[in-house]
């Protein structure tokens, strides 16, 4: 079980001893079982990406803790990530082979076994072995993100943080990658923390959806029970989604701006 308990995080608004601190996350608690997909949906500035970095161990919370099976500081190797910007996630001068070798360093695999692992993983994400010698600029957005997914799987992590992992892709490619992620979850029994502003994508992929608003999780709902939302923000978000005004919080932000 991956768990975050009482997570709080703030940042200084300006340098100096008298700097005020702005709260980004407050008392965030969540749990994600191995093999489960937990959606974390929120508008820009809600704190969702900060939460993702804390779950990955890239940042420390001011308060609270992250545990794996009840143990602190055990999450660095157990949790991997796929980020929104697939271009910067792969070194521009690395071939796909070199990018995929990064998580295998230190495992003392022979060349033949390494090649077999790489080709097998590429096949699982819908690419063939010919892609191993390609560079990032030779890949489409969907292909590059598939490489990032393959690299995350090669780490052997039990959970993957997907931080807006499909939001930069065209709609048709988004659908393909979401279906791929669902298939991979079934194959590997891996858990996902799917961070997004897109309720439609979350409703497709996630077992449960946690709605993050102004640094707090205001509601967590099973995918099949979204209509039971009680918090005003969650209900407004769902109403906009059902009305066809937008796929998620982007529409909610725009609607609020329109109201002045």
Automatic annotation (TrEMBL):
This is Oligopeptide transport ATP-binding protein OppF. Residues 2-239 form the ABC transporter domain. GO terms for biological process: transmembrane transport. Belongs to the ABC transporter superfamily. SUPFAM superfamilies: P-loop containing nucleoside triphosphate hydrolases (SSF52540). Pfam families: ABC_tran (PF00005). The lineage of its organism: Bacteria, Bacillati, Bacillota, Bacilli, Bacillales. CDD domains: ABC_NikE_OppD_transporters.
């Amino acid at each position: 079980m991956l768990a975050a308990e009482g997570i709080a995080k703030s940042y200084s608004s300006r340098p100096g001893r008298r700097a005020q601190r702005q709260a980004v996350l407050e008392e965030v608690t969540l749990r994600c079982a191995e093999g489960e997909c937990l959606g974390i949906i929120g508008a820009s500035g809600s704190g969702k990406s900060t939460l993702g970095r804390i779950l990955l161990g890239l940042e420390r919370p001011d308060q609270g803790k992250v545990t794996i099976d009840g143990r602190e500081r055990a999450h660095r190797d157990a949790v991997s990530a796929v980020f929104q910007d697939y271009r910067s996630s792969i070194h521009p001068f690395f071939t796909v082979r070199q990018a995929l070798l990064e998580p295998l360093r230190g495992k003392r695999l022979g060349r033949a076994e390494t090649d077999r692992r790489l080709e097998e993983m590429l096949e699982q994400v819908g690419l063939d072995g010919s892609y191993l010698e390609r560079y990032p600029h030779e890949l489409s957005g969907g292909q590059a993100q598939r490489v990032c997914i393959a690299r995350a799987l090669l780490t052997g992590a039990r959970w993957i943080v997907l931080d807006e992992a499909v939001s930069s892709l065209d709609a048709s490619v988004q659908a393909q990658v979401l279906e791929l992620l669902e298939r991979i979850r079934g194959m590997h029994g891996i858990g996902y923390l799917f961070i997004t502003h897109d309720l439609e994508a979350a409703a497709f992929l996630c077992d449960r959806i946690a709605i993050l608003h102004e640094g707090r999780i205001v509601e967590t709902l099973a995918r099949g029970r979204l209509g039971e939302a009680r918090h005003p923000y969650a209900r407004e978000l769902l109403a906009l989604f059902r009305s066809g005004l937008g796929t998620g919080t982007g529409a909610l932000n725009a609607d609020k701006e329109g109201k002045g």
